[in-house]
Design a protein that fits this description.
about 80 residues; mainly alpha; 4 helices; about 45% helix; about 0% strand; globular
């Protein structure tokens, strides 16, 4: 099963990748939603049991996931994982 993300997260990822719409505009949630609807891609529905996880530092989370801290920073910047400072 594919991972689904909210339209705002998808728009942010596309913009950070430097992608533009067919008319050269930046992506916004409504534009992503229109594309998703046109191509019949299901919308994001959060799972009811997916609550807020344990708060961790980057170093601790990297050790827990067995990845480099720089990988977590990249994932945060790309919007693939949630985090706050």
């Amino acid at each position: 099963m594919a991972l689904l993300y909210p339209d705002t997260v998808i728009a942010g990822i596309l913009n950070r990748q430097g992608r533009k719409t067919a008319r050269g505009l930046r992506f916004e949630a409504n534009r992503v939603g229109s594309l998703r609807t046109n191509w019949r891609i299901p919308c994001f529905e959060p799972k009811p049991d997916s609550g807020v996880g344990e708060v961790m530092t980057i170093a601790l989370a990297a050790a827990e996931l067995n990845v480099a801290p720089s990988t977590l920073h990249r994932w945060l910047n790309e919007g693939l994982i949630a985090g706050e400072q």
